[in-house]
Amino acid sequence: MDDEKNSVADMALHDVTIEEVEAFIDELPNEYRFLAIFVYATAAPPEAAVSLEVEAVTRLFAKLGNARAMQRLSNVPSHPDWELLLPVYIAGRRADLLKRKNIPPRDEPPQVYLDRAARPFTLEKVNGAFLRLSRKLNLPIPFSLETIARVVATQSMLRLMAMPEHQPDFSLHYWSVCGRFEYERERHV
Predict the structure, then answer these.
(1) N or C: which end of the chain has fewer CB within 10 A?
(2) What is the pLDDT of residues 22-62, one digit of tens each?
(3) How far is Cα 150 from Cα 130, in angstroms, rounded to an integer?
(4) Cβ-Cβ contacts under 8 Å for 69 (sequence gap 6 or more)
(5) Rounded CA gap, 119 and 123, in Å?
(6) How far apart are CA 147 and CA 149, in angstroms?
């Protein structure tokens, strides 16, 4: 019975478009929006996104630079516009939240994404909020972080499959001329 329920959910998931995901993210409260944007940008597994730690992100970005670090965290090709997503969030919104809540640096939670009380998110709490918003918006398919990650990954895969094949790096004219000389040298003329 559980497999049947999952297969129905998977079939319904294929009906969710990237535009619907974007519209859903726009409706989210700020508390959840930035986590959803991160999953949207990277198709990261929800558990990894929720448990992402500031120290690990800071080390990764220092070691690899913004673009390469973001690509390392991403399951889809990363757009250059997303490379500052985490550093700006950590230094801006997260730091402001901790300052407003008077949380000293030694007591800061290690996770990047925090709720409005400056506590780390749990996957259950996030998906519960997403479910409530899905019901409020009368969506036929309840959204979760997993829904966002799957739709983005599927969209990325479809986009890659639709791309024309890459042109070779060498000049076709060069090879046609070389082939002609080779052909003539072998006295096929």
Answers:
(1) N
(2) 999 999 999 999 999 999 999 999 999 999 999 999 999 99
(3) 15
(4) 57, 60, 61, 63, 83
(5) 13
(6) 6
- Cα 67 to Cα 61: distance, rounded to the nearest angstrom: 8
Domain ranges across the chain? 2-184
Distance CA 183, CA 189 (A): 7
As given in the structure block, the two tokens for residue 106 are: 């030694």
The token duo for 43 is 């198709």
Give the CA distances from residue 5 to residues 10, 50, 129, in Å, rounded to whole numbers and listed in that order.
Answer: 9, 25, 21
Per-residue pLDDT reduced to its tens digit, 148-179: 999 999 988 888 777 665 444 444 443 444 44
pTM of the predicted model, to two decimals? 0.77
What six digits make up the tokens of 62?
Answer: 């220092």
